[in-house]
Amino acid sequence: MNSKTFVPNQDRRKQEWYLIDAEGKVLGRLASRIAGLIRGKNNPLFTPHLDMGSFVVVINAEKVVLSGKKWNTKKYYSYSGYPGGLKEIPVLRLLEKHPERIIEKAVKGMLPHNRLGRRLNKKLFVYAGVEHPHQAQKPEKIDI
């Protein structure tokens, strides 16, 4: 009787490309679904320590929706490490200047905070408008 545990190899050929339209989608729910696709949780061979996920292209990032009063209260913080080096950016200003960063930050926070997470974060491509340079990969359009 052979009772060994099956551990899959990291197979690059199985990684697919998905296209997601963020227009009218709530940020948190969208980001959690994207993080699941990037990690490969939709794959029956999901392994937590391997990169088994897919590439995700997100378009219309400028049309994402926040629930509740977050448009007026949500802020993003960054700290330089120096005294007085705390910067805060309201979500409305970030939406005006760099709308793709809102989705990037939300998804990054839902990925593992280690080497694997940094590698998985490179599989996310976010664009403010409808145009994207990934037509050659033939991403499958999915509705979340």
Structure explained in plain terms:
With 144 residues, this protein is α/β, with parallel strands linked by helices. The protein has a domain at 15-67 and 100-141: Ribosomal protein L13 (Ribosomal Protein L13p, Chain: A, Alpha-Beta Complex), CATH 3.90.1180.10. The protein has five helices and six strands, in the order E-H-E-H-E-E-H-H-H-E-E. The chain has helices at residues 27-39, 70-73, 91-97, 100-108, 115-121; strands at residues 17-21, 55-59, 75-79, 86-90, 124-126, 140-141. A four-stranded parallel sheet has the order 5-2-1-6, with helices on one face. A two-stranded antiparallel sheet has the order 3-4. Strand 1, helix 1 and strand 2 form a beta-alpha-beta unit. Helix 1 packs across helix 4 (100-108). The chain is globular.
User: In DSSP terms, counting alpha (H) and pi (I) runs of 4 or more, how many helices?
Assistant: 5
Radius of gyration: 17 Å
Please name the fourth-level CATH homologous superfamily of one domain. Ribosomal protein L13
Q: How many strands appear in the DSSP assignment?
A: 6
* H and E string: EHEHEEHHHEE
Largest sheet report: 4 strands, parallel
CATH class of one domain: Alpha Beta
Q: From the helix content, strand content and strand pairing, which structural class follows?
A: alpha/beta
Q: Biggest sheet: strands side by side, in what order?
A: 5-2-1-6
Helix percent reads: 25-40%
CATH architecture classification name of one domain: Alpha-Beta Complex
CATH topology of one domain: Ribosomal Protein L13p, Chain: A
End-to-end separation in angstroms reads 44 Å
Report the portion of residues in β strands. Answer: 15-25%
* Low-pLDDT segments: none
Q: Give the overall average pLDDT.
A: 94
Q: What overall form do the CA principal axes indicate?
A: globular
